[in-house]
Amino acid sequence: MSTDQDLVTDGLLTHPYAVYDRLRDTAPVHRVTGPDGSPAWLVTRYDDVREALANPLLSLDKRHALPGGYKGFALPPALDANLLNMDPPDHTRIRRLVGRAFTTRRVEQLRAPIRRTADHLLDALGAHGGTDLIAAYAAPLPITVICDLLGVPDGHRRDFRAWTDVLVAPDPARPQAAKEAVVAMLGFFTQLLADKRKEPADDLLSDLIAVRDESGSTGNDRAGSDRAGSDRLSEDELMSLAFLILFAGYENTVQLIGTAVLALLQHPDQLAALRGDPTRLPAAVEEFVRYDGPALLAIRRFPLEDVTISDVTVPAGETVLLSLAAANRDPRRFPDADRFDLGRDATGHLALGHGIHYCLGAPLARLETEVALAALLERLPDLKLDGDPGDLRWRPSLRARGLLALPVTY
């Protein structure tokens, strides 16, 4: 075991893959200073990360964390009772309730609406010119799709995007901004649930409210753990679930679309091959997400007892950070792992997790990325990066990797 390392000052924000390459070779389980300055253990090798993701002794429940450790977002109970903080049986119960909406079969029914949204956004660009592809396309596409699925009115979508950006990449110069965003989101979801109760519609949120209210509860109870095993939601769980679906459904997909387009523009041979055979897109999405996926780290975990990872003993209650990005570039699992290659078999990547906490929205993220790229390849045949790739600005976040902007010409 090597000494503590500050992930921010050591370059993870600016050159994550170079840092991960070094750690995999020298200290695959490494004591670090986490995103909020508290201590944590960073795991970087594929086999170790994959095993840890499925290890029931590594809990997502923050009640098992030692005082002073990294716990992730500081959210009020009404937004915090979500799947990212739960172990079975509560995790099993809630995932079962919402999982039906995100099966591959159900999600496939959204292909045509997603393509219509993509075409509408591309229509607005015109036949030729220049734009920031994140602001004009990669961001509005997934926020439109997930808001339509949940039933969020048009007028609130831009606000939610701004709140999400503040939470994922807090500005040190504005320490109150994250708290203000949380307060605003809490008010937003409180009002949204009230409106949906008054006027239910054909959307996922109305369906979840029906599950909650038709179970016989009064709407005043907050905790949900006493109902583990039943098909019921507490009010906090309902609101937290709506928050998580909207937050994750937008955030991860916008970053994936952006980095996928960048990878293609930086590898013209791969772009040409994909243009020549668009049927390769579903398999290509797996390489996009392996090569440069949106989540650098899995949600933090807390050992229920002392656990050994790669010959290092991590004490119970300390914070464990599993690097999905490092695992996906591990040459022990993916030969020549730093090479972007749409011809490789990228199955088995960990970008979307592994085990019972595998990403609930994975089928939707895959489909949105596939459709978004298909529309771009078809309609913007001369798409090019505008400027030097070294000038691109990345989001200053250890949690999520994504471009702040992607200037292109077409």
> What class, by secondary structure content?
alpha+beta
Strand order within the widest beta sheet: 1-2-3-9
How far apart lie the N and C ends?
50 Å
Low-confidence stretches: 216-229
Total helical elements: 16
Which percent band covers the strand fraction? 5-15%
Query: What is the helix fraction of residues, given as a range?
Result: 40-55%
Task: Detail the topology: elements first, then pairings.
Elements lengths: L4 E2 L9 H11 L2 E5 L5 E5 L2 H8 L4 E2 L17 H4 L9 H10 L4 H5 L2 H15 L4 E3 H6 L1 H11 L6 H12 L8 H22 L5 H10 L21 H32 L1 H9 L4 H12 L9 E2 L3 E3 L2 E3 L5 E3 L1 H5 L33 H18 L4 E2 L21 E3 L1
Parallel strand pairs: 1-2, 3-9
Antiparallel strand pairs: 2-3, 4-6, 5-11, 7-8, 10-11
Helix pairs in contact: 6-8, 6-16, 8-12, 9-10, 12-14, 12-16, 14-16
